[in-house]
# Entry
Amino acid sequence: MVVLYFLQEVLSTPAVLIALIAFIGLMLQKAPATDVIRGTLKSFLGFILIGAGAGIIVGALEPMASMFEKAFNTTGVIPNNEAIIALALREYGEITALIMFFGMFANLILARLTRLKYVFLTGHHTLYMACLIGVILITIGFTNTVAIVIGSVALGLTMILFPAMAQSTMKKITNTDEVGFGHFSTIGYWASATIGRIVGGKNIKSTEDINFPKSLSFLRDSSVSISITMCIIYIVLTILAGPAFIHAELSGGTNFILYAITLGITFAAGVFVILQGVRLILAEIVPAFKGISERLIPGARPALDCPVVFPYAPNAVLIGFFSSFIGGIIGMAGLIAAGGIIILPGVVPHFFCGATAGVFGNARGGIRGAVLGAFVNGLLLTFAPLILMPLLGNLGFANTTFSDLDFIATGFILGSAGQVAPWLVFAVVFGLAGGLIIFNLVAPKKKAKKE
# Structure
């Protein structure tokens, strides 16, 4: 009984479970004892950092809700994956860890048995998708065990389907078919590339053929760009809400401008702490799966994080960021005019997703593709979160939500199917996985292409 109780405690404590997964992964690699100890402790520390970052972000977001209620008589929401994950892991940490663990194995199995030979190595997005899937399945009403089984396969599917969607443009960007793309906002990048094809024309001028001001290069540092943008947003909100209201209700008498700047920097600090925690958690897990994949899946492509494309078009990175953010502001204005929930342009998705959309749009349509493709991406990042929030249960009432489009699409598909009938979720997930496997077995294979 004592042993069973101890195991239950281990499996129900997310920080311990994450550390245990890292320990197992390092042991499977036959890593030296010093590496095993270091990796296990770093994973444990990482989860503690996520909790600390959650507290920082919550503290910065709470005043924003009051400011919006006063200024616009409505609710303001900042889409931010790190923020919503930090909140969700408090309640769904155990199921997230298990879906992530088994989902990574599902990715390897599906890559082995299907023609989508992608091994998803963007660890923090794997964690975020596992959390989203877990929240949706539990909200539908599945038990933890059933949710883990379905969720693991669903996670494995997202880890091969979305990289496949991006591969044709990824090949054009990198001039090689050896590297995949692993960042869960692929729908926005695909849309940007599609728009690039439409508007590019015959004589395409690349963003790299223009001279972009070097004075703006500091915005490539996400901590700086987050700090500046959030400070501006908070200053505008404090002015709209009124200095008197800020002094009396929120700041405790502190000057409203200084209070706004402090909140903006605090939010950026919370995101920074969470990102550091995620990096610590995943640093030892991802290499373990990478080693396994290289031995078990011939012809596999590593699907890498979005910054992998930044060096190919650095001007498109900045153009995409600004274009996406402008799209977010215009979208926010439309929501304000319509009334109801306001989605603020979160700087994290608009920087990383907007910049990447700029690179994808530029690859297909040059400058026009980068500008218009990233602009549309900004509109999507503004309006798409609205369809997911009602499906998140209690988390849908938080002042933040998932930002990237693949999270939203996956959550919407699973949540909508579950609202029709829970068995439909099972049919969609396992039907799709089975169909991909059967197609690989019965369809003729192209010998000339690497699978």
